[in-house]
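Ticket closed. Logging final result for Brf1-like tbp-binding domain.
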Amino acid sequence: MFYVSGVPTREEDDVDKFIHESTVGTVNKILKEEAAELSNSLSEPVKELGPNIASMGLANSLDDVTDTTSNNTAVEFDMSLDDIDDAELDSYIMNEDEFQYKNGLWHKLNAEYLDQLKGKQSLFY
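Final structure:
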């Protein structure tokens, strides 16, 4: 703490105590609320993430192949690059120096994997 005289006064001590107690109280309140929310969410049935049989267009069983649904919704987007100038396009493409740096970095980071791959390949060839 920073004190005007270098030594805490009673008033500064009281301010520090108040700030500490209110901060700890607020933190405890938030922790209790989050614990309550967590226990409430754990009591709810777990909803699986990801696709289900219907969204994948698969039949409900192996025998029921006529009940497949088609969800072929085409997504349209504009692939026009008219609004991008050449300088911006060039900034997305690596030059030779950038390629060499990135290639060297990739090989350095994946050296262990590449050694393992060479070992596996030597078993088969």
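The chain is about 55% helix and 0% strand. No further action required.
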